[in-house]
Each structure stands twice: as structure tokens, then as C-alpha cells.
Design brief:
The chain is of the alpha/beta class and 232 residues long. The chain has eight helices and ten strands. 32% of the residues lie in helices and 19% in strands. The strands form two sheets. The protein has a seven-stranded parallel beta sheet with strand order 1-10-9-6-2-3-5. It has a three-stranded antiparallel beta sheet with strand order 4-8-7, with no helix packed on it. Strand 2, helix 2 and strand 3 form a beta-alpha-beta unit. The protein is globular. It starts with a strand and ends with a helix. The structure holds 2-phosphoglycolic acid. The site of 2-phosphoglycolic acid has 7 residues, from loops.
Amino acid sequence: MRILVTADYQTLSRTAAELVAKAVRGRAEFVLGLPTGRTPLGMYAELVRMHRDQGLSFSKVRTFNLDEYLGLAQDDPNSFHTCMHEHFFDHVDIAEANAHFPDEAGNYEEAIRNVGGIELLIVGIGANGHIAFNEPGSGFSSRTRTVSLAAETMANAAKQFGSNAVPHQAVTMGIGTMLDSRHIVLLASGSGKAEVVRRSLRGPITEAVPASALQMHPNVIAILDEEANGEK
Ligand code: PGA
């Protein structure tokens, strides 16, 4: 695993966006796996800017989001659909039909296989070590499925949901699904992630820390800001 430590969140976001842009540019087709959460928002803003100012095109790109809550309408303000449209899809030239989200229908794995697999997967990390909604204890060979959210995950989401109830369940790519991606970029920002980053990247590989599975993948770049890296 390559670990890139950037000075701050802005540099992390720019570094991640440049990596995506470099991968996508000049390709007839490209398949991206994409996260939601707070961490990737700066990367999306930078990609939108590159689309606007430099003509970076997503017209040949297919995207597969990592996860989505169960029980929310697609246009619910708290759905990951809405988040992706607000921060990325509505501001670039991606075709609606090329932007995929997992749902209960259960054909996500097949849809990913049918386009030749994910070339580049971007992923954040939860304070409890989850990647996508693969909570601690998830199998390293798990596939896309319905999961129950950890109490800690629901508590974190509650800030965003305000007076609305946080869903108890979600559909998530599995850890096995994610590990099938040819390249993976992990993003982590802020001192609140330092401990879990240390356990995930430098600790033992264990299903108790889902992100530690990334140590088994041959092509991972972790982009951390100095606070998330934690080491002085
Ligand atoms: P965050 O979420 O980017 O909002 O910290 C990361 C995650 O839970 O995967």
C-alpha cells in the first residue's frame, strides 16, 4: 500500500481528484466506484471544477456507488442518490443511466461484472473501521447485500438526519466486491480518523477492522491529511 500524506483537507481533495482525472482522461470507457460521506466532498468539488474549467469529461464513465440507505426515497434529502446529484452528477456530463446505486433487487454484482469490473474505487473510512457499510465483523469475501447499521454509524448519521429517523439498514457493496476493483484509493481526513487509520493500515488484518482488508490488495493508495495520519 502506498500512503500519501497531504498537508490538509484541500490538498487531499485535489490529490484525489487529480488521480481520478488522470485515470479517466483519454479513456474510451471507464468504471469508477464512488463513496459518499463528508470526506469525498472536496474531491467532487474539484472534479466539478476540472469539468468546468478544463473540459474533463465523464460522458464515457460508468459509476457504481458503494452503498445506499434502505427505506429512503431516491429523492430523499438524506439519500446517497441526492448527495451524489447535489455534489457531483448534476454538475458534470455523466449520463443518468450510467450512474448506479445498489438496491434490494440484487443484480449489482452482475451489473459490475457486465461492464468489466471496477477500474478505480474511491472509499472513505468510518471511525469504527467500516468501508462502505461493511461494519466490523463483515466477511472479507462478502458481496453486495443488505446490512444492519452499527449503532455508532447511526449515531454519526443522526447529526445529518436532524429530526428524521436514521434508517437501520442499507445495501452495500461487500468487502469482496470492493477488493475485486483493480485500483483502490482510500481517503481519510481529520484527527478523528487517526486512530482507525493506524489500526486499519498498520495493525493486524482482521474482520474486526473492515478497512484492514485493504492491506491485502495489491494496488491501494491511501491519501491522508496530516491529522488523519496522526504521526508527527
Ligand atoms: P465520512 O464517512 O467521510 O463522513 O467521515 C466515512 C465513512 O463512514 O465511510
